[in-house]
Input
Amino acid sequence: MRSWSDSPFPSREELSGVPEGKSISQDNGESRLVYEIKDNPGWLAKLYKRPADAGRISDLQRLVYLPTVMSQADQDLVDRCLAWPTTRLYDGSDLVGVVMAKAPDGFYAPLKALSGWQDPAPLPLDWLMKPADKCAQVGLRRPDLDLRLRAVEELLAVGDLFARHDIVYGDWSYRNALWNQHTGEVFVIDMDSCGIGSREWVESPGWADPLFPDRSRRPTVASDSYKLAVLTVRCLTAQRQDPVDALHALERSTRDASLGGLLRRTLTATRLEDRPKCAELLEAVRRIRGTTASAGPSATSGSRAGADNVTTWVKVGPRAGAGAARPAEATASARPSDTTRAASDASGTDGAAASNVTGSVNLRNRSAARPPASAPEPSPSSAGSGRSGPGPGSASAAGGSGTGATPTPGSVPPTSHTPRPAARSTSRSAARRAAMARGSSGRTAPAAARRPRRHAVTVMLFCALIAALCVARYVLGWI
Output
């Protein structure tokens, strides 16, 4: 079951439309009750202790609709790793709760106690902070480095998604995410409390950000990046103490200095702008694991793990001597439709006919082994527009294939017309001079360079024959 796209409820629902089933928790944090909705297994209703204020109402509305303008890759991440709020629950005019998906069964496990095996319970990420022997004592799998790296990769992928959409989670800790002991996957909960741009102050003990020392500054994505760095160190080392001190153990275990260097910069930076972005940490972890980024807007950070060294725009224009393009055409950026149409027009024609392709083609992250993604990322401008309509399940399909969206880097489809490198634009006369120079240096000149020499010899022999005939006639006439 997908945690957002498969929601059976509309984006707004009356409290009476989600009848109470099995109780999950009571008076936990900001919620007074969390229960599984009757006749809808796998879907939970979370009711607040007090109705939401105006700021919370606005943020929740934007969160519910935000996946409709995400790329397909981001929607897949939401559906796999996040208890995303899918429905706002109203009691009259008051917003009193939300509907969200229950964590899949893989994030639950029975634990062995002195009295025997207990019923399956959620596995918080807290288990990765414990030694492997402690996990084995309660019947859990010993987390090795690969499982820890997988968990960290998914946490950083979620953090990168939040940063790109300006979502502030705020309460990052090892109790607000669940862990699958078999696959290493994570499932982040309490998503409904996120803010857009900033949020009210929230912090767990032991996670204080030195650049946000008090409540005078509201948490932002910059403070989230610090807490994700702390979470990364603690997940990979199982050490709860000072994360900077634990970096030495991390570098020994991963045998990779780049990740440790990025984490050190994040943890010790004295200015927010000096902290590396979450996407940089994600790329370093993927480099260690040997995985690559899925096609999606994560490329907006400037690079993707596993991408080749083609990282810019290449100008496409007529060859030397094929005619100058109009200035407007020479500077325009080629859209995907323009490039494809020009390539189709050029098929079956000679090179001169194809030389009218002008503009620029984005070759960022393109390689022969991995073709670029074909689906452009929809513009996020419609997020939070307050539109009403069918539930997230039907809206996600429209969001993944919206029309008129600006193509993301790497989304330009490959064409049959390859730009001619500038190094091959040497003129024929220059090539002939180079060939003559090679011939004069003692090498055998090519046939094209030897033709003028044979012609000169023929002319000289013809002139000598005419001169001989004239001399013979003069001598014979004198005799």
Remarks:
- The mean pLDDT is 75.
- The CA atoms of residues 152 and 442 lie 66 Å apart.
- The chain is about 35% helix and 15% strand.
- The longest strand covers residues 20-28.
